[in-house]
Amino acid sequence: MQFRNSKNMFWRHWLTAPVIWAPFPFVLILDLMMEIYHQVGFGLCKLERVDRSQYIQIRDRGKLQYLSPLEKIGCMYCGYINGVMLYWGEICQRTEAYWCGIMHEGKPGFETQKHQIKGHFAKFNDREDTNNKYREFF
Predict the structure, then answer these.
(1) What's the angle, vertex CA 117, arms to CA 113 and CA 121, rounded to 5?
(2) What is the Cα–Cα distance from 124 to 114, expressed in whole angstroms?
(3) What percent of the chain has pLDDT over 70?
(4) Measuring CA to CA, how many Å separate 40 from each of 5, 35, 46, 82, 137?
(5) Is 83:52 a contact under the CB 8 Å cutoff?
(6) If DSSP states are collapsed to H, E and C, what string results for 68-97?
(7) Domain residue ranges in the chain
(8) Kind and range of the H or E element at 9?
(9) pTM of structure
(10) With contact defined as beta carbons under 8 Å apart, do 77 and 21 qualify?
(11) pLDDT of res. 104
(12) What does the DSSP 8-state code read for residue 7?
């Protein structure tokens, strides 16, 4: 990426860093809330829990000798933030499949969610398919 080596990038990075790090405390709080939901909600509904270690990895890049301590902290942050977002996504997808497994309306430009196809969601606007797949729970 050529732009990273351009003049004045040092200052741009220092000005951008607070914006990148600002969500961190909120992400930690939401992560705690999501984990409580994941453990309690999935346990009560007898859903298979998501293996957190398959999504969040923060220590591997810290082993790289050629990174400075500051770079290692940044890598840990990115590993956590990106991993936790994927982890939450999987929790949300499993929640959607359990509670509201109806496909979204196929609109032009809307990307069909792969988990909806994989999860055999009921077809959009198909009452019989919805009743066959989901009405037994209520």
Answers:
(1) 100
(2) 15
(3) 89
(4) 48, 8, 10, 24, 19
(5) no
(6) CHHHHHHHHHHHHHHHHHHHHHHHHHHHHH
(7) 24-99, 101-138
(8) helix 9-21
(9) 0.81
(10) yes
(11) 84
(12) T
Please provide residue 125's backbone torsions phi and psi, each rounded to the nearest 5 degrees. 60, 35
- For residue 7, CA distances in Å to 13, 17, 53, 80 come to 12, 17, 39, 30
The residue type found at 36 is I
Residue 124, number of CB atoms within 10 A of its CB:
13
Structure-model confidence comparison of residues 61 and 9, the more confident one: 61
Residue 56 has pLDDT above 80, yes or no: yes
The pLDDT of residue 5: 60
Compute the Cα dihedral for 90, 95, 101, 106 and give only its sign. negative
State the DSSP code for 67: S
Distance CA 84, CA 107 (A): 29
Residue 127 one-letter amino acid: R
Cβ neighbours of 113 (radius 10 Å): 14
Identity of the residue numbered 25: P
pLDDT at 53: 95
